[in-house]
Amino acid sequence: YLFELKEDDDACKKAQQTGAFYLFHSLAPLLQTSAHRYLAPRHSLLELKGLLGKFGQDAQRIEESVLIGCSEQHEAWFALDLGLDSSSSISAQALLHWHHTHQFCSRSGQPTKKNMAGSKRVCPSNNIIYYPQVAPVVITLVSDGTRCLLARQSSFPKGMYSALAGFCDIGESLEETVRREVAEEVGLEVQSLQYSASQHWPFPNSSLVIACHATVKPGQTEIHVNLRELEAAAWFSHDEVATALRRKGPNVQQQNETFPFWLPPKVTVAHQLIKEWVEKQTCSSLPA
Length: 288
Ligand SMILES: NC(=O)c1ccc[n+]([C@@H]2O[C@H](COP(=O)([O-])OP(=O)(O)OC[C@H]3O[C@@H](n4cnc5c(N)ncnc54)[C@H](O)[C@@H]3O)[C@@H](O)[C@H]2O)c1
Ligand SMILES: [Mg+2]
Fold this sequence. Notes:
The protein is of the alpha+beta class.
């Protein structure tokens, strides 16, 4: 059903009649608080036209909406950004951000036009079709069998460590990126690797983060930190990591000016990857 709406502008326009619209302003979502929770209000086309009229906006703006999904019953969902200045926060809706930042054809320089669903942009002068780009990123938790390797960039919040991450270079397989990034960032040779999970990650642009476990040969565990990319990297024991998983975010500074290390929040695939390793270690240390 979604494929049909992306390929057929008339079908998409018709779906707006019975669809639901989520509103944004300069890429920030409009939220309502209710009983200490944030809810994203949905607006029907009629309500949306009323809102636009109330604020003196042209109903034509509805053409700027983008299709973001549908219900099992084929109720289409749309996002519409009412903000005029889109240079501010990119904290939401990767697709709206992509439209704001890809307005021109990279070959002719002409302004491109979004299709009704917002699933692509087309250059009217040469018919080149542009689709939203997603940059693949690998995140790798390296283990030597009993410890795992965590690292931090200087841009991370104080005390936070995570698994090694890196963008795939053009032409690389994911496996090649894992081996290259681990070699580049900590000077270790990956012996084996195993896929774990993936996550769409819209910060700073649209990336697809693919999480993997990797092992190094026992005895080949000497770390050489690439200080151009990382501030620090070290091996951590199962107990240290299990304790850190329970810490919620930045902790108070300890007397000796250090921060007990903590890990990315639960919402990140980095957290899930590290948690999966701790659970696997716990299971493997249980008596058979
Ligand atoms: N969701 C998660 O759990 C999670 C975990 C780790 C990293 N990430 C994200 O993955 C991304 C990559 O992590 P990193 O900073 O360690 O990457 P990295 O080690 O490749 O270093 C970043 C460098 O990659 C280059 N680069 C930037 N954008 C690129 C692109 N689109 N394609 C190719 N190269 C690019 C730049 O030179 C940049 O300095 C970051 O945006 C980070 O937010 C998400
Ligand atoms: Mg990196």
